[in-house]
Amino acid sequence: MKLDLIQIDAFAEKVFQGNPAAVCPLSNRLEDSVMQSIASENNLSETAFILKSGVDQYDIRWFTPDGEVDLCGHATMASAHFLFERKLVDGRTVVFNSRSGRLPVCRHADGQLEMDFPEQTFAPCEAPPQLLSGLNVGMKETYRSIDYLVILENQQQVLNCTPDMNQLMTLDLRGVIISARGHCSDFVSRFFAPKYGIHEDPVTGSAHCILAPYWAKTLSKAILKARQLSKRGGQLTCEMNGKRVFLKGRAVTYMTGEITI
Questions:
Q1: SS3 per residue for 152-177
Q2: What is the largest CA-CA distance in the chain?
Q3: In this predicted model, what pLDDT tens digit does every residue of 20-65 receive, in sequence order?
């Protein structure tokens, strides 16, 4: 069997920036084990599998090298970019049906893609011992959601943090977000998910479903400029709209190919 495979840099202005994701368009469903094997072989933070399910609608699933996840921003943006670039969408919006519900992505006239994602609720919590030793940095606040959100004093602390991945791997949640106010953006962040085979994710759309509501409340702003301080780096705009988070950015195609399984 031969399948198309497209690698796209999401939340990027040009190649070699943002977060690379693989997109695998399907004509028929694949076994979960096969999708997991493809994602492991790709060894990117996520591989998205999309299957047409209606007019401008696609089912989407996301796999890291080590498992399936319920929500992924950059691979959703990459999938939308692929569909719009190939003119496989009739209108300006494509809807992805996922484990996290319906996820519309709109393409604006300037080429930017805007994803409509669910807000993730969060609550204050005591930092577990593995989180304290794993980050080894002074924490202002700690919250629990699909990930741990740790607020640090300043941007330099976020940059300088060198986590112990063995400690973070033992945590019960998906991953760890560290964040602080930014110098040239409203806030900055980094994201670690070693239990899913991702030591540091370059740009994490789903993490901003926690970050955006936190910083919107903290800064009393509905629209925020965000930057993720990974080695590749990435930037996006977040907008709160009720219980939804709009995430806007750009994507570029890096590679197109074909795999044989």
A1: CCCHHHHHHCCCCHHHHCCCCCCCEE
A2: 52
A3: 999 999 999 999 999 999 999 999 999 999 999 999 999 999 999 9
**Residue bearing tokens 């399910």:** 53
Taking the C-alpha atoms of residue 223 and residue 240, their distance in angstroms, rounded to an integer, is 7
The reply to whether 46 belongs to the active site is yes
State phi, psi for 133 to the nearest 5 degrees. -75, -30
Angle at alpha carbon of residue 254, lines to 35 and 115, rounded to 5°: 70
Spatial neighbors of 128 by CB under 8 A, at least 6 apart, are 171, 172
Contact 143, 123 (CB under 8 A): yes
- How much is the pTM? 0.91
Given the residues 13, 46, 119, 126, select the one marked as catalytic.
46
Quick: pLDDT tens for 195-208: 998 999 999 999 99
Instruction: Report strand pairing: 2-10 vs 251-260.
Output: antiparallel
Beta carbons of 32 and 64 less than 8 angstroms apart: no
- Token pair listed for 100: 């996290």
Residue 14 tokens, joined: 């040009």
